[in-house]
Amino acid sequence: MNSTREIITLQFGHYSNFIGTHFWNLQEASFTYEENNKPLEICHDVLYREGVNLKGEVTYTPRMLCVDLKNGFYQLPDVHRGLYDLNCSNLDEEILNSSTKIQTIQEEKIPSNEFFSDLVKQELLIDDDSEKINIAEKVYNLDNDVKIWSDFLKARFHPRTITSIDEYKHNDSSNVFNNFAQGLGLWDSYIMKETWTDNLRLYAEECDYLQGFHISMDSLNGFGGLACKALEYLKDEYSNKTIIAMPVLSDNYILEDENSELQAVNTSLLFSSLFEHSTMFVPLTTSSGGWIKSQSHLNLDYLSYKNNLDYHSSAILASAIDTFTLGYRSRFGNDSMQTMCTRLTPLGRKAVSASIQLPLGFESKSNLLDYLQNSTLPLWKPISPQCTTEMSVAQTIVLRGITENMLYSNNLIRDSKNPSHHCTSPSDLLKLFLSFCDHVRMTEVHSFDSSLETIAPFPNIFSQSINQHGFVESSSRSSTSVVAKCAAISGLHNSNSMRDMFIALKNDSSKVKGSKLSHMFNYDIDVMDYKETLENLLVLSDNYLINDCL
Amino acid sequence: MSAISLLNPKAEFARAAQALAVNISAARGIQDVMKTNLGPKGTMKMLVSGAGEIKITKDGNVLLHEMQIQHPTASLIARASTAMDDATGDGTTSTVLIIGELLKQAENLISEGVHPRVLTEGMIKARDKALELLEKIKVEGKPDRQRLYDVATTSLRTKVDRKLADQMADICVDAVLNVQREDGIDLHMVELMEMQHKTSTATTLVRGLVLDHGSRHPDMPRKVENAFILTCNVSMEYEKSEVNSGFFYKTAEEREKLAIAERDFIEQRVKKVIELKRKVCPPGSGKSFVVINQKGIDPYSLDMLAKEGIIGLRRAKRRNMERLSLACGGSAVNSVDDLTEDVLGYAGSVYEYVLGENKYTFVEDCKNPLSVTILIKAPNKYTLAQIKDAIHDGLRAIKNSIDDGAVVPGAGAFEIYAWQELQKYKDEIKGKSRLGIQAYAEALLIIPKTISTNSGFDAQDMIVKLQEECRENVGPVGVNVDSGEVLQPVDAGIFDNYCVKKQILNSCTIIASNLLLVDEIMRAGMSSLKG
C-alpha cells in the first residue's frame, strides 16, 4: 500500500500564483522520464496526484488549488489545456443542429509568446527529428512578455485546479480588491464556499495519509482575508492536519498602488490570524521593506535581477520554497511537516523567517570544505521582511546540488584530529561547520544531490560568471547558453528578530489614519477589533523575547 | 464650470443635458446588446475568450456577468439586473430592456422641456398603479403540477434550447415536489451532480443521492442491496502528530506505547461500527451496511471495514450529511459511542459507478426521499455549465410560484394590459406628471415588441393586434411566437413568476428615475484627490 504522506497546496492571489507557477515549473523540470533510472531523491507524489482522463490516459498533475481574479490568467488550448478535454469536433455539429440563431462575440486573441510557440512546435515535432527545438538549451528573454503568471506557465493542471473570482477583475482601477475585509466577504460567494471547498474535498478524499497543507497568499491585498477564511475552514474540517502558511509580499504592488498605507493594515490583520490558524508561517519577500516602500532589496552575489518584475522576484522565492521544503518531500527521510514545525516553532513562536543563497557561489572544481572556510557569514540572505536570521533558537538548513564527491579536494591531507576532515556527507560537514560558527540551539541540516533545475521559463537572472552547471567560473559564460541547474542553500530560522518585524508592522499600521480605515471596515471588522488585533500582535511579539526558552 | 473643478482641476465632469445624454446612451447601449435575447425565439450568444474558451448562452444574467462592461452607468444597470437575478432567478433581460426604454421615452419629453423631477413623479405613480394591476391580473391558487411545469418551461425556454428546456422543466418540477415539506422548500436539498461523459447528453433525476466519491479499498463490495446507512462525522484516521508533538514521553518505549494507544483509540471507533453492523445485519439476512463519513478513514480502518463487507466512504460533503438523513432517514452522528439502530438510514440499493478517474456512488430506492439529485451528463464543460444554469433557474421559478401562490400570464400579456389600464388612469391625473405615466405605459410595451421582433414579426402590427384584442376584454392576451397571432397565455400555458414581475416593476422604476435625476457626473479618482 502506498504510504506517501500527501500535501495539498493552496494558492491565493496573483503574486502567490507567480511564485506557484515557478514552483510547479521547477518541479516539472526535475522529472525524469527514463526508465530504469535509480529512484529520485525527491518524492513527487507528495505534491502530485496520478489520475486518468476520459480517454484512459494517465495524468500527473499537482494536488493544488489556486484562486485568482478574473482576467488574472488565461489558459491557452495548445499549452495548458487538453489533459482532460475530449475532442471538441462535435461542437460545430451541435451548433448547426440546434434550431436557434447564434451570435458570436469574440474577444481579442491573446498573442502567444516565443516560449509558448516553441513549446507547441516541440509537441508537434515530437516524432520528427529534423527540426527539433531544444527548449532546455535555448536562451529566452521573456522579461517584457510576462505580464501575468500564465504567460510562463509550463505545467499542466487538473481542470479543478483554477478558481476564478468574477466579482473583481485583475488590474481594474475602478473596483480594486485591496482590502482585507473584501476578501473576508468574498468567502461567502458560491464559487468559494461551494465549488472551491468541494474541489478541496475531492483532493483530500483521494489521499490516504494526508499530512497537511501548504498555503500561500498575497498579504498586501484582499486575498489575505480570503485565505484567512479558508484557513478557518481548514481548521474546522481538517482539524489535525499541519498547515504551513506563506504570506507573500510583492514589491510591485507597493509601487503601483497609491493607497499603500492599507497594505500594512492588511498584513497585520493577516499575520494575527495566521498566529491563530496556522501551524507555522513564513513571510516571504525580496524587498526589505515588505509592506512599505523601500529602496533596498535582496542582493545576491551572482544574480542580477529586477526587483520590480514579479517574474524575477517570484523565481527566487519559488526556488527557496522548493529548497526548504525538501526535508519532508524526500523519498528516503521520514521527516514530516509536523515534526519540522514542532522543531521550529517552540513556545508559540509560529512565525519563522526564511533565507536563501542562490546560486551558491561555489567555484567549479572546488570543494565544500574550501567553500565553507572561505565563505563570509552568514551563508544566506534573509527573504522575510524586516528581519535577520541571526539569533535564532531553531533552524532548518537545506543544501542542494552538492554531492558527496565534492566534499574534499583530491589532495587533501587528512588530519585525524580534525573532525571536519572525516565527514561522510555534505550535511554532516555543513552541520559541523555551523555548530562552530553559529550559536543556534537546534540546527537541522539536510543535503540533497539534486540541484535546482533552472531551465526556461526560469528567468535569465544569473550573472555571466556562472557556468551552465551553476558554478562560478573565471571565464564568462557565452551569451547563447543558459544556466541549466544550480546549487542552492535555503533555510528556515526562528529568529529573535521576528520581534522587530512585528513591532515595525504594528507601528506602520498604527500610523494609518482613521479616515483611511473607515471605508475599509464596511463589514465584518470594526475599528475596535482592529485595534485589538494590533495590540495582540505586540503580545505575540513578546514570545520572541525570552531567549532561554529551551 | 463645475464646482468640483475649482477644488480639483483634474476632475472630469459632465453637466445637465450632457450628463443625461451620457446615462441614456449607456442604457440604450446595454439594451441593444440584450435585446436580441428576449423570449423563446431570441438568439443565442457565443462568447469566445481571448484564449479561445467558449461559452454559449442566452441567459441575460450569464451574459451580463461575462461581458466586460466598462461604462459606469451601464455597469450600474448590469449590477442592478444581476442582483435581481440573485433574488429571484429570472428577469434580468427584461429589467435591462425596460430601464433602457424608460430612459428613451423620457429623453423625448425632456428635450421638449419637461423637468425630470416631474417625469419621475409620474413614473412612480404609474408604478404604483401597475403593481395594483399586477394584483388584478395574477392567477391565484395553489399551483398544480401542470401549472408548475408551465412556469418552468416559460422561464427555461428563454434561456436554453426548446427541446432541452422542456426536458429540464419536467425534471425540475419533480425535484421540487419531492423536496417540498410543510415548512417550505429548501433548494439545497436538490443536489446537482455533473458527469463529463464521452457521448451522451442526458439529464436524469435520481430519487436518492449521488455522491461524487467511492470506496477506496479494492475488497469492498461495489454494489449492495438492502443497505443500512450510517452517516457520521468521526475521524477514523490515525494521526501520528498528537504523540509526536510535545512533552508526553521521556523514552522511546514510552513513545512507542503512546503511539500504540493512539492507534488503538482509532481502532476502537471502527470496532464499534463493526459491532453495530453485526447486530443489524446478521449473516444470511441479506442486509448490508454502508458507512458514510465526513472525516477521513485511513487505509488500515478501511481494511477492517472491508473485511466485514462494509462499504466505507470518506470525506463526504458537509451538506450531504443533512441530505443523507433526509433521503434515507436516520440521523448523522458525531461520535460512535452509544450507537443504536435508530441513527441508521436505509436505502434499497447502493452501487458504485466509475467514469475515468471519478467514482460515483448512487444511494437509491429510499423509502421517502426528501432529498433528490439531478444528474447532468454532457460531453463538454460549457454544455454542463449551460444545463446547470438552466436547472438553477428552473428550480427557482418553481419555488417562486409555490411560495407566491400565484402566477402571472406571460407572453407580454401583463404589459399590454397595464398599457391599456394606464391610458385610462392617465386621464384621472391632473398636471404634467401624466406625461410620466404615458412614458411608463409606452416603455412597458418594449417587452411584447421585442418578443415579436425576435420571432420575426412586425412589432407595430403585433402591438396593434394585441391592443385591439385587449380592448375587447377577453382576458389576458399575448404574443404567439410561432404564428405571429394573438394567443391566450392561460390556455397556452405561458406563465411568469409573480415575484419576478413585481421586482422588475420596482427596480426598473427606481433605477430609471435615479438616472434621470442625475444632473452632473463627476469623475475624480482617489489618486487625484490625494492629500
Automatic annotation (TrEMBL), chain A:
Q: Give me the Gene Ontology terms describing cellular component.
A: mitochondrion
Task: State the Gene3D superfamilies in the record.
Answer: Tubulin/FtsZ, GTPase domain
Chain ranges of the Misato Segment II tubulin-like domain: 5-120
- Tell me what this protein is called: Protein misato
One of the GO BP terms on file: mitochondrion organization
Q: Which UniProt keywords apply?
A: Mitochondrion
Family note? Belongs to the misato family.
Which cell locations does it reside in?
Mitochondrion
- Which Pfam families does the record cross-reference, listed alphabetically? Misat_Tub_SegII, Tubulin_3
The answer to whether keyword Mitochondrion applies is yes
InterPro entries attached here? DML1/Misato, DML1/Misato_tubulin, Misato_II_tubulin-like, Tubulin/FtsZ_GTPase_sf
Residue ranges of every copy of the DML1/Misato tubulin domain listed in the record = 144-328
UniProtKB/TrEMBL annotation, chain B:
Q: Which PANTHER family match?
A: CHAPERONIN
Q: Main subcellular localization, coarse class?
A: cytoplasm
**Alphabetical list of InterPro entries matching this protein:** Chap_CCT_zeta, Chaperone_TCP-1, Chaperonin_TCP-1_CS, Cpn60/GroEL/TCP-1, GroEL-like_apical_dom_sf, GROEL-like_equatorial_sf, TCP-1-like_intermed_sf, TCP-1_chaperonin
Family to which this protein belongs: Belongs to the TCP-1 chaperonin family.
- Segments passing through the bilayer: none
- Its name, as the record gives it, is T-complex protein 1 subunit zeta
MF GO annotations: ATP binding; ATP hydrolysis activity; ATP-dependent protein folding chaperone; unfolded protein binding
**Superkingdom as given in the UniProt entry:** Eukaryota
One Pfam family assigned to this protein is Cpn60_TCP1
One Gene Ontology term, aspect cellular component: cytoplasm
Q: Which key words are in the record?
A: ATP-binding, Chaperone, Cytoplasm, Nucleotide-binding
Stretch forming the signal peptide:
none
**Compartments reported by the entry:** Cytoplasm
